[in-house]
Write a sequence for this structure.
């Protein structure tokens, strides 16, 4: 069994205009096993990085002037990078406490197309290959009535379709800092909230 230890070091730096920090990820699996890392925010893509056992990858950042900074990372390890974990590496929760992500876990050669909307916001159209992820963050409105739904297509020719309720305020405590993940798979769509076990939620093509 392979163990991937991820250590996040947040070094707060305060100035009159902005704060920021540093994030470091360490490969402490075992000799001969590599770690591959890809971290992103809404505005910055930190690129792909591979480290040997004992190595580390880190980067510095500045908080957004509106305090809405969020970085998430995808990490692979194990033989042929067969083990994967995705997580929020840093989030300034003052403005954007809720994060929704859609992962494609179908099979190689399949695509995922996603279009998410609320009453007031259209998040646009996004296409991802196998292993990819699309995510967005937002803040619940003061009335606790936020609702986001997503149209999702998957398959080699995007032949399967389903609409999902990606987030609805009444399902969660109003002050919850939620991390909601959706896994797009061949047999349907699964949900995980704040790192909990995946639970089946939707069949494809509106099947019961």
């Amino acid at each position: 069994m392979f163990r991937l230890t991820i250590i996040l070091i947040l070094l707060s730096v305060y100035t009159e205009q902005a704060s920021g920090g540093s994030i470091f990820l360490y490969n402490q699996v075992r000799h001969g096993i590599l770690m591959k890392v890809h971290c992103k925010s809404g505005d910055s893509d930190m690129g792909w990085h591979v480290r040997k056992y004992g190595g580390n990858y880190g980067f510095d950042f500045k908080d957004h002037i509106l305090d809405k900074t969020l970085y998430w990372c995808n990490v692979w390890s194990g033989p042929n990078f067969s083990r994967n974990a995705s997580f929020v590496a840093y989030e300034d929760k003052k403005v954007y406490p809720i994060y929704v992500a859609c992962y494609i876990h179908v099979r190689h050669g399949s695509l995922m197309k996603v279009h998410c909307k609320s009453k007031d916001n259209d998040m646009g159209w996004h296409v991802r290959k196998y292993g990819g992820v699309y995510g967005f963050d937002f803040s619940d409105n003061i009335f606790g009535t936020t609702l986001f739904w997503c149209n999702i297509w998957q398959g080699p020719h995007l032949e399967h379709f389903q609409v999902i309720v990606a987030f609805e305020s009444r399902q969660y405590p109003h002050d919850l800092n939620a991390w909601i993940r959706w896994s797009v798979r061949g047999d349907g769509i699964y949900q995980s909230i704040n790192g909990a076990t995946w639970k089946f939620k939707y069949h494809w093509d509106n099947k019961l």
About this structure: The chain is about 0% helix and 55% strand. Confidence is low (pLDDT under 50) at residues 1-18. The chain has two domains: 1-93, 97-208.
